[in-house]
Amino acid sequence: MPAKGPWYDSFGGSFIAETLSPPVAELNESYERIIASESFQQRYQALLKHYVGRQTPLTLAENFSRHLGVKAYLKREDLAHTGAHKINNALGQALLAQAMGKRRVVAETGAGQHGVATAAACALLGIECVIYMGLRDMQRQALNVQRMRLMGATVVPAEGGSQTLKDAINDALRDWVAHADTTYYLLGSALGPHPYPAIVRYFQSVIGKEARQQFAALEDGALPDAVVACVGGGSNAIGLFSAFIDEPQVKLCGVEAAGQGEASGLHSIRFGDSGQSRLGVLQGCQSYVLQDEHGQIMETHSIAPGLDYAMVGPEHAQLRDNGRAQYLQATDEEAIDALKLLSRCEGIIPALESAHAVAGAIKLAKRLPAGARIIINISGRGDKDMETISRLVADTVQEGEANESH
Ligand SMILES: *Cc1c(COP(=O)(O)O)cnc(C)c1O
């Protein structure tokens, strides 16, 4: 199918099979009207407050700031229900599905975080929920599979291909096409065919709106000098950036997962220099995609499962190419070091994804004048990652114990 706009300059669009045209058109026709309606807004805002627990705090990290040499505030999406920002979008789209008269929601999940948030929103609203997940991912993330099932979702293994996220996406889309009259497809990041990037941005923009107001209240009406967020597909970052894009004095800084380093080939850097990332089409939209010389999607790697994705959302591609935002990278090791530092300084264990934002902030701080003020988005909490973390920091813990016994 020919791609149709609107575009984020040369990014975005709607590259979909003919069979997907009717449901995407239906979504396009209904979402703006529904989102603008007073009844929808009342319901959504009330649930954000009483179910998700918003607004989330903006916490001045005083001890960590001393390490950085700049004044750092943390936007605490780790305190949102289900432990990350994903619930803002899952709940918003589940309400949208209900308003469109859909009785059933399908979604795919990689590490399981989006699946858990979707299962929670559907349980709350009484909507049937089917989550597609690669068989390998189900084995690696067994706890999240249990959480989804406890909340009443059906988790269906994707057994084709590499048995990971890509295959789960294919199965979820097939399900959607086959049951479009009753079913809503709930996408988890600022990706996919139009209007999904716009819908996800809208539901995550609450992060930026709150952060801007909270910062102004604490800092005499000022704007921050920079805002920092990790970028997988890009939803938590675009949610934070959206409140500051029109304020050119505020630096926007996204942080990608460099895995074991760009040269190793084991990374998720879509904005790198290696030439492995080029313009491509994946999941219905055009943006930078990690691919080999034949255009095959590359295997990606990150210690943070939520950043382990071959494509970046189209608006980030635009913001990078027009220079409005800058994108840094943090390796697995830098993220772990940042996670340990923030945990020890502040008593806050960030998710491994969010630890990339913290590591990026440490790099950015070196280029900012003393006294600069920044906001770092803590997109989620580290509880889900404790197994990975404890494997990696076991050495440190043992060292500490050994010292004590001397
Ligand atoms: C999924 C996830 C991310 C990455 O997704 P974005 O769409 O880039 O925000 C980041 N942090 C956490 C905690 C996540 O669960």
Automatic annotation (TrEMBL):
List of residues that carry N6-(pyridoxal phosphate)lysine: 86
Keywords, comma-separated and alphabetical: Amino-acid biosynthesis, Aromatic amino acid biosynthesis, Lyase, Pyridoxal phosphate, Tryptophan biosynthesis
PROSITE patterns for this protein: TRP_SYNTHASE_BETA
Question: Which top EC class is named for this enzyme in its record?
Answer: lyase
Q: Which cofactor does it need?
A: pyridoxal 5'-phosphate
Q: What EC number(s) does this enzyme carry?
A: 4.2.1.20
Q: Which residues form the Tryptophan synthase beta chain-like PALP domain?
A: 53-380
Q: Which reaction does it catalyse?
A: (1S,2R)-1-C-(indol-3-yl)glycerol 3-phosphate + L-serine = D-glyceraldehyde 3-phosphate + L-tryptophan + H2O
Involved pathway(s): Amino-acid biosynthesis; L-tryptophan biosynthesis; L-tryptophan from chorismate: step 5/5
Q: What would be one Pfam family of this protein?
A: PALP
One of the record's GO molecular function terms: tryptophan synthase activity
This molecule's function is given as: The beta subunit is responsible for the synthesis of L-tryptophan from indole and L-serine.
PANTHER family xref list = TRYPTOPHAN SYNTHASE, TRYPTOPHAN SYNTHASE-RELATED
**Could you tell me which NCBIfam families the record lists for this protein?**
trpB (TIGR00263)
The UniProt similarity line reads: Belongs to the TrpB family.
Assembly, per entry: Tetramer of two alpha and two beta chains.
Official protein name in the record:
Tryptophan synthase beta chain
